[in-house]
């Protein structure tokens, strides 16, 4: 909250120094929009972020938020039977409202998108209907 007040104070002082009421209105709206996720109760923070790109087509990235949601992915170009293609491998996961962890691993290549759902997430009701 203190950071937002300091930002608003700075923006207001800059707007007043330039003598524009329009700048002041835009500044107040901008600060209000920046705080919208907090006002809506979304307090998740990014706790891990990594990105790498070698400039030749290969990349990787990863992020994780404070609520346990995450995604990891790497990809690059491959040569298959004389054709160039892109292959991407990754996974993502999240906790549902009941506290269960859901994980999806995937590969996307010349054969399309191929998800692999973690077997621990699948719950079967094996009661027989008679």
For the secondary structure, the number of strands is 6
How would the global form be characterised? flat
Q: What strand order characterises the main sheet?
A: 1-2-3-4-5-6
**Radius of gyration from CA coordinates:** 23 Å
Distance between the termini: 60 Å
Number of helices: 3
InterPro entries: Cuticle_Struct_Prot, Insect_cuticle
Keywords: Cuticle, Signal
Pfam families: Chitin_bind_4
GO molecular function, one term: structural constituent of chitin-based larval cuticle
Write up what this structure looks like:
This protein has a six-stranded antiparallel beta sheet, with no helix packed on it. Helix 1 (2-17) runs antiparallel to helix 2. It is flat, with a radius of gyration of 23 Å. The chain has three helices and six strands; from the N terminus they run αααββββββ. By secondary structure, the protein is α+β, with helices and mostly antiparallel strands. The chain folds into two domains: 2-39; 46-121, no CATH class. 26% of the residues lie in helices and 42% in strands.
